[in-house]
């Protein structure tokens, strides 16, 4: 069944934003369409503080709809700038933790806000709570440390744990590689030639 939307309606733009967000893009298009009617559109002017480091979460998860958001550390150091389709505040919305970065609007910014009553069922459907610890672990790995936490959360959702028995081969020299592996525990012997 094809979905039809008014080309001039704001819902189309909101669906595009949710489709650009890795977490929300995991939901069927029909669900994203319904969510556009439930979210709150919040406007910020240039320089407005959206979230402040150390402040309790307001229980809302956000997706940047337009504009740029600068994320900085407690000492004011800019960590990264995020744009349309990036999500923020998932951990606070689900766990009620203190904010771990300050977010400031760069130019005019619009966010789509999803209160706990909307976001918690989505998080359950996607299995976000189970992926949190895996995302936290990824954050400690040098190759992933500079990625936004929501991107790490998205990657963690795709993790497929694999346990090897002693002597078991993960892959053989010369085989095509279609997967990436991260060693969580134990040791692996690497041989760079065929046995």
In words, what does this structure look like?
The protein has 195 residues and is of the alpha+beta class. A hairpin with a 5-residue loop joins strand 3 and strand 4. It is globular. About 3% of the residues have low confidence.
Which helices and strands, and how do they pair?
Layout: H1 10-20, H2 29-38, E1 40-44, E2 49-51, E3 61-72, E4 78-82, E5 87-88, H3 90-95, E6 102-114, H4 116-126, H5 128-139, H6 149-157
Antiparallel strand pairs: 1-6, 2-6, 3-4, 3-5, 3-6
- Give the helix/strand class: alpha+beta
**Main sheet characteristics:** 6 strands, antiparallel
Number of strands: 6
- Distance between termini? 53 Å
Radius of gyration equals 20 Å
- State mean pLDDT (0 to 100 scale): 86
Tell me the helix content.
25-40%
Rough shape?
A: globular
Hey, roughly how much beta strand do the residues contain?
A: 15-25%
Low-confidence stretches: 5-9
Helix and strand run: HHEEEEEHEHHH
Number of helices: 6
Attribute tags:
21% strand, six-stranded antiparallel sheet, 195 residues, 6 strands, globular
Describe this structure in a few short sentences.
By secondary structure, the protein is of the alpha+beta class. The chain contains six helices and six strands.
């Amino acid at each position: 069944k094809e979905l039809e939307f008014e080309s001039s309606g704001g819902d189309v733009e909101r669906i595009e934003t949710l489709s650009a967000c890795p977490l929300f893009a995991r939901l069927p298009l029909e669900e994203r369409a319904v969510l556009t009617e439930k979210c709150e559109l919040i406007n910020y002017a240039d320089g407005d503080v959206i979230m402040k480091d150390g402040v309790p979460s307001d229980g809302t998860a956000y997706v940047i709809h337009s504009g740029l958001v600068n994320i900085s550390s407690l000492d004011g150091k800019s960590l990264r700038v995020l744009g349309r389709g990036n999500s923020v505040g998932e951990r606070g919305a689900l766990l009620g933790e203190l904010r771990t970065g300050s977010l400031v609007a760069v130019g005019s910014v619009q966010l789509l806000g999803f209160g706990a009553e909307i976001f918690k069922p989505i998080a359950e459907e996607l299995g976000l709570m189970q992926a949190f610890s895996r995302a936290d672990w990824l954050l400690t790995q040098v190759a992933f440390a500079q990625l936004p936490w929501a991107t790490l959360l998205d990657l963690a959702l795709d993790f497929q744990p694999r346990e090897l028995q002693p002597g078991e081969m993960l892959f053989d020299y010369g085989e095509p590689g279609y997967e990436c592996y991260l060693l969580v525990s134990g040791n692996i012997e690497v041989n760079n030639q065929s046995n």
